[in-house]
Specification:
Shape: elongated
Strand content: 15-25%
Structural class: alpha+beta
Order of helices and strands: HHHHHEEEEHHHHHHHEEEEEEH
Low-confidence stretches: none
Number of helices: 13
Radius of gyration: 35 Å
């Protein structure tokens, strides 16, 4: 039922792939990831799941969710990924026949849990029914076609017998018929029965790929953008032209073989549209980053930064400077804050580590800038008087605050207003300050020579 040309092309590419096996671990991992994402995304997207390709990758590879989708869509995508592993593991059991219970387990897995769904009665009336995962339908699951006609699948009372016949047929022909023909017919015959109230399409595509896995062939992916062609060939099969659907599946296998051969050769397996997918994923990942940089400052934000970032840094620097006070005649460490008073006047406030109270000192004022100043006057161990001056400047921009080494105009760190300095940040900056002061002392006393 496959054309000679298609059979020949499939055999040629299969032989080439087999000659290139085994793939290197790196190339195999890339190929497995590609098939995993393509199959899960497309099979679910065909049935109305609205997760994008990038969101699918974030979910399955990075275990992160993004977007405002129904929670069930995330659950079903993850469950479908588990079902994919189920068919691969089952296919690896080469001596085990296809079991009816396995088919029910697949459907139970992908549907996750019971839910209610809109449906159509046998006479075309709208209704709702409860979907029980893994259980055969108890009422007809007719569907309205695009031309308005009602298409009737197998009656509920006949489902058990027809599934049993389908399983027996497959086990009898497995290993005897061409695997492409067998996979396509298993898919088609299963869909014609439509044994479950939901998930029949996904289950059919999983079963089809169970056959391909059993015959060491790559996954066949029905792309969601080809939904129209996919359904059209199924409709032609309904009208008696089974060859149309079998040929369609065979052509999809060629894509999978070509992809696998490229991976085996170590070639790039990204497709033309993969850049769009990558950009989409990048946007999703960037959306994971807190958007504090986009939020303009308020006086409260600045006061919180002073209280939770600058003051702890100020106190840590002061505690370290205390250790060298006896080397100088005088050492002063202060926190300088420039604010604008309600009457418009600028005012510099100076705080020592002991007399700083809290951000309440700034209530009703607009804070413009801040700095931590260190003045070490008259180093005792030098012939000439040596003073050391160091300043950490805090730049309060519209969307972030930055701390500078003022002597070199060197930016040390930039953070959004709702993010405060960590203990590591504070320790690192304080250490940098002390390194500068110690080097100045060494230079003044010729200890660097």
């Amino acid at each position: 039922m496959l054309s000679k040309n298609l059979l020949s092309e499939i055999k040629e590419k299969s032989d080439m792939l087999n000659s290139l096996k085994p793939l290197s671990p790196e190339n195999q991992a890339k190929l497995d990831k590609k098939f995993r994402l393509e199959f899960n995304f497309n099979s679910n997207h065909l049935e109305g799941n609205t997760l994008t390709y990038g969101e699918t990758e974030l979910l399955l590879i990075f275990d992160q969710t993004e977007g405002t989708h129904d929670y069930r869509e995330y659950q079903e995508m993850q469950a479908h990924d588990v079902a994919l592993r189920m068919i691969q593991e089952e296919a690896a059991e080469t001596e085990r026949p296809l079991l009816e219970n396995f088919i029910r387990n697949l459907n139970e897995k992908i549907l996750v849990k019971p839910f209610w769904k809109d449906a159509i009665t046998a006479d075309g009336q709208s209704t709702r029914k409860q979907i029980i995962p893994g259980e055969y339908k108890k009422t007809p699951n007719s569907v309205r076609l695009s031309n308005g006609e009602i298409f009737h699948y197998t009656a509920p009372s006949e489902v058990a017998n027809e599934i049993a016949e389908l399983v027996a047929w497959f086990n009898e022909n497995n290993g005897k018929e061409n695997p492409v023909l067998l996979a396509a017919l298993l898919h088609y015959r299963f869909v014609r029965i439509h044994p479950f109230d939901d998930g029949n399409g996904r289950t059919a595509r999983l079963l089809m790929n169970y056959v391909f896995a059993k015959n060491n062939l790559p996954l066949v992916v029905i792309k969601s953008e080809e939904k129209k062609d996919y359904l059209a060939t199924l409709n032609r099969a309904d009208a008696g032209d089974l060859n149309a659907f079998v040929e369609y599946i065979g052509k999809q296998l060629l894509w999978s073989l070509d992809l696998s051969i490229k991976a085996a050769k170590g070639e790039n397996i990204d497709e033309d549209d993969d850049l769009d997918k990558e950009l989409e994923l990048l946007k999703q990942e960037l959306n994971q980053v807190p958007n504090e940089f986009e939020q303009e400052k308020t006086n409260s934000d600045i006061a919180n930064v002073i209280e939770n970032s600058i003051v702890p840094l100020f106190r840590e620097i002061n505690s370290k400077i205390e250790k060298i006070k006896d080397l100088f005649v005088r050492v002063d460490v202060d926190l300088q804050i420039l604010q604008i008073k309600p009457n418009g006047y600028h005012e510099d406030l100076f705080f020592s580590a002991k007399d700083y109270v809290s951000e309440n000192s700034f209530e009703g004022y607009e804070i413009k800038s801040a700095s931590i100043n260190i003045i070490c006057t008259a180093l005792k161990k030098t012939v000439r008087q040596k003073n050391i001056y160091y300043k950490l400047r805090v730049d309060l921009a519209d969307y972030n605050y930055r701390i500078y080494n003022d002597a070199r105009n060197e930016e040390l760190i930039i953070l959004p207003y709702k993010t405060f300095l960590s203990k590591y940040n504070i320790d690192s900056i304080a250490k940098l300050v002390m390194t500068y002061v110690i080097n100045e002392i060494k230079s003044a006393t010729n200890l660097n020579n």
